[in-house]
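Page 37, top half.
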Amino acid sequence: MAAPPEPPGVNPPAVLGRHPQLEGRPGGQLFEKLPSGSRLTAAGEEVLEFANQMEASSHLLETRVFGRDQSVRGLLRVTLAPPLATHLLMPDFADFARLHPDIEMEVVSSGELANLTNREADVAIRVVYDRKTLPLNLHGLKGPEVFGGVYMSRDRLAAWRAGAPDPIRWIVISIHGIPDWASDGEVRTTGVPFRTTDGEAQIVAVRQGLGMTTLPCFVGDADPLLARVPGTDLHMYGTLWLLTQGEARKTKRVRLFTEFISRSLAEYAPLLAGLSVLRD
């Protein structure tokens, strides 16, 4: 029978290197060698459990000490999805950086939720459909709701209204496809999609008049080259949240940033909901 797999992240030689004194004692063997590799013994399992507890305590201590830091000078890491950074909030980040030149900002554009507990980021800005899906240890500051719609280029829409025979395709992100909520509306598309691997290429493709695509309203409505497809509806993606963790949210840098950005998000609420256009 094959040996059970080692727990994720377990490296028996590394464990031995950190605890050589245990290996020389009766009952202190941390792993046993098997033809297929190695696996932890009962003693090794206990060492792993204690090591995990020590790591968690270390992170807790770090966040508590960090939380007492009331200095404005220092590093502030902010993580958010790329469209939010490039199409909405970068001007606000620039304003904040000019207002607080002693704060070193690092913007991490990623769709993944960074581990705030391990200080991978100090603030996460995320679109969340259900608040209950977020870890309980995160402190959330609720922002506006975010909607999306179906868009095509204004020139292509005008050509379609004039009866141009050119086929209109769906432009989609390869890994996502056409969302269930999206419809053609009054415009009929072919069954042959045009696929891209990232959001920026998707936007460029729709500007080129290849067809229609789904975009957040804060992207589509703010682009003077794009228009909503007639007969299509808006769709709610979720609610924007400013997320922080534990003691870190008490630092002056984090408090200044979250207060500043929450005011910006409140101003953007009509745009995020598809009710307005971006202010000049």
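Page 37, bottom half:
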Amino acid sequence: MAFDHPHTSALPDTQSIKMPRPKQPRPILVIGAGGIVRAAHLPAYAMAGFPVIGIMDENAERATSLATERGIPNAFSTIAEAVRFAPDDVIFDVAVPASQLVHILPQLKDGTAVLMQKPMGETLAEAAAIREICRNKGLTASVNFSLRYSPNNLAVQALADAGMIGAIHDVEVQTSTFTPWHLWTFLATAPRLEILYHSIHYFDLIRSWLGNPRSVSAKTVKSPHAAGLAATKTVAILDYGDAMRVFVATNHSHEFGEAHQHSFVQFEGLHGAARMTMGVNLDYPTGRPDTVEYARRGAGEASWTSVPIQGNNFPDGFMGPMGALQAYVEGSAASLPTHFEDAYETMALVEALYRSSDNGAAYVSFKDDI
């Protein structure tokens, strides 16, 4: 997207930005009762007024406990049981480890609407299999890339739409924090970790702003402080031509207090710059408030201004993917930004990053030649 019209002097109203939502919310049935459902999905749906009619987990006690805690009327321990119960207009929210998607999606009825927790499989081959399942079953399926709908990203988009950033020529993502990976027990044996389960949000966000890169160069490495896990530190450069710098640098083992921890995305354009801070990463899972700052080009250090926003990515951003899917299904929205076809291209980018890490620079293929 290009933003090359002159900037204005007044900040746009970034506190009144509305999340996508349907005219008439449909019932939601959640598959999975893990930490992300408890911390983000269910609080977001309660804030949005989206009705959750049931929750399923193969651990029946966990499903029942969470359902009781959140006032959800039904709990199930099998997919088959949940599918039999589900009304025709249900939206399935499938929040499970990525490796389970290829086993769960075939059990849903043809034509079902589904929101999948990211990533869309653990490899590009799995993503292709998931895409084929969705196509063959006619599923209206989307992937939960919540950072696109985080209030701070929506505020930066409002700044850009107002012409206050101008044509973007630099995108910088840096995260240096201490992440408690033990909270996600399935990651202990995951062959891929940092890019696939964390930085995929950044790469998907960059795609939403700039489209697909021409090539990538990346290295993702293990940390001696998480020796039993796959790689948890990454540096990546995305090639968008000779007039654009785009990179992502992450370190999840920075356990030296708060003074120099950081987690931000910064955009620089012809007219100005914006930096969005991702507070949840700085004290996970409690988190700190997300922020946005804006600076007008040429005004010096004093030009940095705090941009008011309402809410955080956790849980507010999680209203967006579900609201967008529901609006698309009912026909009140013409497009579905995180449709599984688009999510496949994010997975193609992720695959290229891993190939580059293993073998050097890799050109991204967004075709079926996996």
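Margin note: Residues 1-8 have pLDDT under 50 and may be disordered.
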